[in-house]
Structure formats: C-alpha cells, structure tokens
Amino acid sequence: MIKAIIFDMDGLMVDTEYLYSIALQKIAQKRGKDFTLTLKKAMIGRQGTSSMDIFKERLGLEETAEELLTERECIYGDLLHEAELVPMPGLLELLLLADDMAIPVAIASSSQERWIGIVLNKLGINNRFKAIVSGYEVKNSKPYPDIYLLAAERLGIQSQYCLALEDTPVGIEAAKRAGMISVAVPNKYSNGLDFSMADMVIISLKDVENEVFNKYAEM
C-alpha cells in the first residue's frame, strides 16, 4: 500500500525545535514575559503567522503576528546557521530503506524553503528527496491538507498510497485530511499531546520498517 513517504521536518527529521524555543524565549523575555512549555505545545507544528498569532494572544503582546514572525525568523536564522545538527535516530536508515525499496520520499514542512535547504545541507541529505514543499507555498497551512496534497501531486502518487510521518497533532490532522496513512512520532515537546487521529503512534523512526511497513504490507 505504501508507494511514497512524506516527512515533516522540524522535530521529526531533526531537533530544530529547541532553536525555535530559544528564539521565542528571547522575544518573550525582551517584553518581560516567559515562554513556557505549555505555550510551545500550543504552537508546535503550525506555520508562520498562525503560530505567532497564538504567541501574541497568550502573552498579550501589542505587536502584530507578522511583526513578531519577522523578529523570530531573524533570531532563528542566526541560531540555525550556527547550530550543529544531527539527524533523528533512524532517519538515515529509513532513507536508505526507501532507496532499496524504490519508494520515493518527500518533505512537507511548515518551515520556509530556505530553512529547509539549510537543514538538509547540514544533515548531508539535500539530494535525497524527490519533492520538497514549504508551508509558505500553500494558501492554507497545517492542519489543512494543502501541503500534503501538493507533495503527493509533485510525487505523482495518489495520496492514499502515501505514508506521512509527523511529530505533531496538527501535522497528523493535515495528513489525515489529505487521505494519507498518518503515523505519529512524538518528540520531547509533543509527547503527551492528543494523537488520536493518527493511524499509528511509534517511538522512533527506527520503528517504521518493522511496525509500519509490516502492518500495511499485510493489508
């Protein structure tokens, strides 16, 4: 049943979420506020202004979401350029497995295209994906299905044959609404959130081969 794999990026392929947290904490502290884990969990997985709308509302800030996003992107960009990134456990092995099985892979990330490029280059996997879709390319961001539908279109594969791997409930909802097999791989920030919409929840990308592929190969 699985003819393609579509990955989210931040928090799934690589732990860049801590960089976003540092940037947001800097913005909050500058205004005498505190960026909490609870607020992080409310924002996680959402694109750009959608996430900053939550940040603005919860902290009672006067600036617009667009102004706060510009500030966040500036700080995050500097942090990302300086960061040493490593792939999440199981990512490289899963990409090799997909190659062996002739299964094309894609990325559907809420991040900006330039951030995606920097991350992939730092991980040494910038030429491994047949399609890359940024949340800034679609009208409606996650939890709407637009980004996943566009990824499937670029792969040339019907969405029901795509495996979507996500680390947030927002991402899982987007993939489900696109009609995909949706598997959650929670990280330290999203662990404990509601993943009831997922077709399966696994601990690590290492579990995709034995748990996900085996289940759907039997169907």
What is the CATH architecture assignment of the largest domain? 3-Layer(aba) Sandwich
- What is the CATH topology classification name of the largest domain? Rossmann fold
Mean pLDDT: 94
What multimeric state do the chains show? single chain
Spans of at least 5 consecutive residues with low confidence: none
Q: In brief, what are we looking at here?
A:
This protein has 219 residues and is α/β, with parallel strands linked by helices.
Can you give a write-up of this model?
This protein is 46% helix and 11% strand. It starts with a strand and ends with a helix. It has helices at 17-30, 37-43, 48-59, 65-82, 91-100, 113-123, 146-155, 169-177, 208-217, and strands at 4-7, 105-109, 131-134, 162-166, 181-184, 200-201. The chain has 9 helices and 6 strands. It is globular and about 55 Å long. It folds into 2 domains: 4-14 and 86-217, HAD superfamily/HAD-like (Rossmann fold); 17-82, DNA polymerase, domain 1. α1 (17-30) crosses α4 and α3 crosses α4 (65-82). It has a 6-stranded parallel beta sheet with strand order 3-2-1-4-5-6, covered by helices on one side. It is α/β, with parallel strands linked by helices and 219 residues long.
Task: Give the helix/strand layout.
Elements: E1 4-7, H1 17-30, H2 37-43, H3 48-59, H4 65-82, H5 91-100, E2 105-109, H6 113-123, E3 131-134, H7 146-155, E4 162-166, H8 169-177, E5 181-184, E6 200-201, H9 208-217
Parallel strand pairs: 1-2, 1-4, 2-3, 4-5, 5-6
Helix pairs in contact: 1-4, 3-4
